[in-house]
Amino acid sequence: MITKTKPQTKRPNLYRVLLLNDDYTPMEFVVHVLERFFNKDREAATRIMLHVHHHGIGECGIFTYEVAETKVTQVMDFARKHQHPLQCVMEKK
Ligand code: TYC
User: Fold this and answer.
1) Residue whose CA lies nearest to ligand 1 atom number 5
2) Which one, of 68, 85, 70, 91, lies nearest residue 29 by Cα?
3) Which terminal Cβ of the chain has fewer Cβ within 10 Å, N or C?
4) What is the pTM of this model?
């Protein structure tokens, strides 16, 4: 009997974290969220915010499940605390 070991090439499932546009959250607040929770510099944060503003949705980053879930919770809690309707969601890649 021959026992073969499968090559270990399993990749973790990855999830996109997305921001959704709305009419009320200030642009500057969204830029701040991207800097604070997604480690973007001001230029990248502004680019992503404007993409969401014009297209309705945009990607903030790609993470493993637990990290993505943490980011979504942090953004939603932060937005709620500041009484902005900003929505953040995750989707499987
Ligand atoms: N549309 C908002 C405004 O005009 C800005 C905005 C951008 C809100 C991105 C949410 O995810 C968002 N103030």
Assistant:
1) 27
2) 85
3) N
4) 0.91
